[in-house]
Specification:
CATH class: Alpha Beta
CATH topology: Rossmann fold
Shape: globular
Number of helices: 8
Number of domains: 1
Structural class: alpha/beta
CATH superfamily: NAD(P)-binding Rossmann-like Domain
CATH architecture: 3-Layer(aba) Sandwich
Length: about 260
Amino acid sequence: MTVTVVTGASSGIGRSLARRLAAGGDSVAVLARRKPLLDSLVEEIVQAGGRALAVECNVTDRDQVQEAMRQVERTLGPIDRLVANAGGGERTLVDDFQAAQIERVVALNLGGAANCIEAVLPGMLRRGSGHLVATSSIAGYRGLPHGAAYGAAKAALSNMMESLRLDLEPRGVAVTTIHAGFVKVKQRKRPRPFAVDVESATRRMHRAILDRRRHYAFPLTLTVAGFAARLMPAFLYDRLMRDRGAKPHKRAPTTTTTVPGPQQ
């Protein structure tokens, strides 16, 4: 039985994906900061006939991550698959630009994934098998208005995973990077373009994980637009994107759902 760790599993994408993996036969360890929500998820999985473990963990804390992974292995066995899904972002406003905000978002999206990989990779290399999965974003393809922190973090995450794939595939460890578009995790006053619901998103992600795809991006329309933006000359891209979105002069309250991405 495959032992899979899913981070950011207390709600949204992570919670739905953990249920799907468990329904498919994986023993699932669900990690996040909100333990009561994890406990309710484990109860759902067990009642459906699956096997699951809830572990409270802040992925930005290296020591917590190391201990969490040890707990998983003591209870469920060696970790075969990591789904580094914890992440999120907040708008970056030029009128109140703060380096600390960039550091905070990068620490969650990039540093959190790196902490988890550090904890599970040695065992995978010893066994000559394993699977690393990270939830990145189409927002990392190119800069977006108000997206400096989140886009930079996801671009760095995608680059890290691709580099790891080149090094790890010859050693038996598969690497999958999922580039998600907008996912409807709550009601919004202004709907996001081409947004998909959580269950549709995780159905696609689950298939990509099982197939051990190197890269997977969705939805198709937003993916094509993202690739086109990559190829677009800077002057044309600037003209297209300039003045897009709201123009706030005060920092909005910190949140993890203002831009595409999962939660911790």
